[in-house]
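Z., the sequence and structure:
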Amino acid sequence: MTNAQLLAMARDNLTRFTAAPAPAEALRHAIEGHEMVFALYPDESPRGFDTYLIKGKPLVPGASDEDLARFTTTAVPCADLSEALALERTFGDTRPGKH
């Protein structure tokens, strides 16, 4: 997955979330419906954003590029790293009750 592809996914999701009658529910549905979810948030780099994997970390160790390409993946926009970390606590692999 390239950074350009992740950025396109995050932009598409932002459009869906803002158009949804219940944006928070649309966000939850997008995250829960994918095996790997990246948060994109603004930074000072030349590309203008950084990424943080909020869901799917247990899938990465030892996985080949081909393995990773098979997982359902999406990206969601965040205001900053703090928001990405909050989404990880709420929807990530180690949230309470998740085994």
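The mean pLDDT is 92. The first helix runs from residue 3 to 19.

Let me know what you think.
H.
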